[in-house]
Amino acid sequence: MIETVVSVGLAVGENWNIYKNRIQPPVRKGNEKRLSIVTGVHGDELEGQFVCYELNRILQENIEHLKGIVDIYPALNPLGLDSITRGVPGFDIDMNRIFPGDEEGAVTEHIASRIMADISGSDFCVDIHASSIFVREIPQIRMSEKRADSLIRYARLMNVDLVWIHESPVVLESTLSHGLNSIGVPTFVVEMGVGMRITKSYGRQLTDGIFCLMKELGIWEGETITPKDPMISLNRKLGLLHAQKPGIFIPLVEHLGIVEEGQPMGRILNPLDGTIMEEVVSPISGLVFTLREYPVVSTGSLLARVLGGEEA
Question: How confident is the model at residue 12 (pLDDT cuts 50, 70, 90)?
Answer without folding.
Answer: confident
